[in-house]
Amino acid sequence: MQRFKIFFVLALLMVAHYAMAANDSSIIPRPQSVEKRKGEFTILTTTKITHYTSLRPLAQYLGQYLPLEIREYNAPTTGDIALVENKNLSPEAYVLDISGEGITIEGGSQAGVLYGVETLLQLLPSSVYGGGLALPTMVGACRVEDAPRFEYRGFMLDLSRTWMEVDEIKLFIERLAHHKINKLHLHLSDDEGWRVEILSHPELTKIGGYRGVDSPVAARYGRWDEHYGGYLTQDDVRELVEFASLRNIEIIPEIDLPGHSHNLARVKPEVLCRYTPDVSASDGYDMRSVLCVAKEENYALLEDIVRELAELFPSPYIHIGGDEVSTSQWSRCPDCKALMEREGMKDVGELQDYFTARMERIVAKYGKRTGVWNEAARSGSIDPTSLVYGWESAKACREVLDKGYTTVVMPGEYFYFDMRQSKREEGHDWAAIFDVRKTIGFSFEDFTLEQMSRVAGVQASFFSEAYISRREYDYDFLYYQTYPRICALSEVAWRGEGAQWEEFNARLLGAHYSRMEAMGIDYRMMPPEVDYIDGVLSAKSEGNALIYYTEVGSEGEKLYTAPIATDSPQRFAFRVRRAGAHSPEAAVAAHWRMLQPKFKITSSIAESERYTYAGAERYGRIARTARVGKEGDWILYTFEEAVKCRRMEIYTGNLQLPRYIFNAGYMEVSYDGVKFERVCELENGGGVIDNPRRAIKAVRIVCSESGNGANFVTVQAPKIYPVL
Ligand code: TNX
Q: Which segments of the chain belong to CATH 3.20.20.80?
């Protein structure tokens, strides 16, 4: 019996060993060099973590994952995991040495040691991330020598549009650290919310931290029926800064100026340009969102803000925004015009340079440098020490690099993770529709050596206006959008180049999906491949993940176990699931077919001259009303011939983005064009009729709440799903 037990344990250990051997080629980001060696080290419950005095916090960090005794390092001893600083290495470089005798992690600084620790965690069974690692465990002998290509490896979170609780931000930071990201850019102000407490102006957060209902800040995206928001107190900021710093993540605060300042202007209307706005189409709502650059009081206010931010955030940078600044307000403002004359400016656009220069001086006064979005650097006249964030395109990045600016490369088409990942998923599409394959394919090959010498690094972002309305408090969507795209970001930022998709995907499937699962990340998976051949419908998934399917007209999801013989393949849709992760649906093309019957729009609101209702009637472009909706307003869709369908959706607002909508109201259906019956309340500006009992002749949506924070309503063509 005893012998059998020993055999069993040995067999288990061998299995563990082979599983591990697979792991060391699946590290993300891939280290510069991994040298495999013979043998392995066994981590026992009695193994100790020893550390240089200065590395105690890091030893404790490792201790959260590997609950071992922690001791100061004295001299090399066998059997320990030693954390050592080695000043011969560059600060973020590390050497991870695993032999039969023990594990040594040498780093050029605390940061380097952290990255050695992160790599070690990836070499262990993935359960280490969930705190569920059973000891003893073995790790194969090897020597990893590694250092990042870029000193800036960032991620941006937009807390303004969608608020996140401090504990959730911490969790997000922890997961970034596992991917060796070292900057967290916090977008702390925008039109929709002010998210950092400024003690000298508490109203910025007391009022500007919330929107909707009785707030002067009208909600523009979702959650109109709720006093929505939150903000970071200065104590929260200090806590986050400390938490992030242990994980080698620098937090860079951004206050987006002088555009994107609608929120600030609702709290302090005096920051706006001095002219009477035309509010006739907006139910009295003043929509101006750009600060007046001619008012001295504005610079005094901004100095108060900068002074406090400079004290709160140790980062050498304060990002002052500078994107998407409309000059229409400045060109109507007598003070701005007078300023232009005084300064001899010919073009109203020069006022942005003037503003940036003033802000640079303020920021410099408090010992910091400015970060700006690429538009602010276009003229080439801003401070040469500014850090420019190239977001519009790779070309825009190269342009600012050519002007001599140090640039963070983050073109939207690769790194904006608010972009939808395939045609029918949620999210923006202005930059591109892309998934992780595109991000991992990023390459600097179009950048010259000269340009490369000024690339600070790479960043990705999650802007959150499309997120707020549908998914607030639902962090799953945040992770679905950002992972595994962040894994690809990590690779590009650490190595300075992407990877072949097949090779990278093998790392994801081989180990990283499991790691993410243990971390608690509900990432997005690749959809299954669906085939319909000779009357048989089949689906195949990557890595043999379980496939589930739905069938139109039957409830719930079923596990797919074998190909389905059917004459109606269009009735089925498949998706992959694995722990909390899932893929979008996949189906044969006919599943997605939509009807486009002829219809007419009539409304109690006149149509916009430019975007007429006829545009939507042709299923072409979206149409607009000439003013915002008021209580009792309606829009009526009448079909030339009654439409038989399985589902009809009618939305106001932009496609994929509930902005410019009927804030609240209800939807009515008519089967004869005369009698209407109520079907539902509007949600996010629209309503849905599922399985109508007869052919639909007309649908009416009725507004029950005036205003939407804009001066028009967007009218879309109906979405009509055929009976399948
Ligand atoms: C552009 S990125 C913006 C943001 C939006 C984002 C949506 C940038 C500097 N401006 O205001 O949220 O697109 O993808």
A: 152-496
At 174-225, the pLDDT tens digits run 999 999 999 999 999 999 999 999 999 999 999 999 988 888 888 777 666 7
Instruction: Specify the residue with its C-alpha closest to ligand 1, atom 10.
Output: 323
Residue 185 near residue 459, CB atoms below 8 Å = yes
User: Which residues in the chain are classed under CATH 2.60.120.260?
Assistant: 599-721
For 12-31, what is the mean pLDDT?
62
Sequence-separated (6 or more) residues with CB below 8 Å from residue 479: 521, 522, 523
Query: CATH number of the domain at 12-146, please?
Result: 3.30.379.10
To which residue do tokens 């860079």 refer? 252
Residue spans in the chain of domains classed CATH 3.30.379.10: 12-146
> Which two tokens mark 276?
């009477």
Pocket flag, ligand 1, residue 416 (CB < 6 Å): yes
Residue 285, C-beta contacts closer than 8 angstroms, at least 6 positions apart: 218, 279, 628, 707, 709, 710, 711
As a whole number, the mean pLDDT across the chain is: 94
Distance (Å) from CA 391 to ligand 1 centroid: 9
Atom number in ligand 1 closest to CA 416? 14
Q: How far is ligand 1, taken at its centre, from the CA of residue 270, in Å? A: 26
Q: Is the pLDDT of residue 8 over 70?
A: no
Alpha-carbon span 522 to 581, nearest angstrom: 4
pLDDT at 9: 47
CATH 1.20.120 fits 529-592, yes or no: no
Q: Count other Cβ atoms within 10 Å, centred on residue 37.
A: 13
Q: What is the average pLDDT across 151-159?
A: 98
H or E element, residue 189: strand 183-190
Q: What is the 3-state secondary structure (H, E, C) of 554-616?
A: CCCCEECCCCEECCCHHHEEEEEEECCEECCCECCHHHHCCECCCEEEEECCCECCCCCHHHH
**Crossing angle for the helix pair 110-123 and 56-65, nearest 10 degrees?**
20
* Distance (Å, whole) CA 499 – CA 279: 52
Q: What is the pLDDT of residue 470?
A: 54
Average of per-residue pLDDT across 82-86:
97
Pocket probe mutation, ligand 1, options 324, 389, 400, 428, max atoms within 8 Å of Cβ: 324
Q: Is the CB of 428 under 6 A from ligand 1?
A: yes
Query: 254: Cβ below 6 Å to ligand 1?
Result: no
Instruction: Tell me, yes or no, if the pTM score tops 0.90.
Output: yes
Structure tokens at 465: 């206006």
Task: Measure the CA–CA gap between 278 and 276, rounded to whole angstroms.
Answer: 7
103-132 confidence digits (pLDDT tens) = 999 999 999 999 999 999 999 999 999 988
> With a 6 A CB cut-off, is 224 part of the ligand 1 pocket?
no
Nearest protein CA to atom 9 of ligand 1, as residue: 323
Q: Cβ(607) to ligand 1 under 6 A? A: no
Residue 16: what pLDDT?
45
Just give the CATH number of 599-721: 2.60.120.260
Q: Angle at which helices 334-343 and 350-365 pack, to 10 degrees?
A: 80
CA 491 – ligand 1 centroid, Å:
24
Class of domain 152-496: alpha beta
Residue 204, φ and ψ in degrees, nearest 5: -55, -40
Q: How far apart are CA 298 and CA 258, in angstroms?
A: 10
Query: CA-to-CA distance for 320 and 298, rounded, in angstroms?
Result: 14
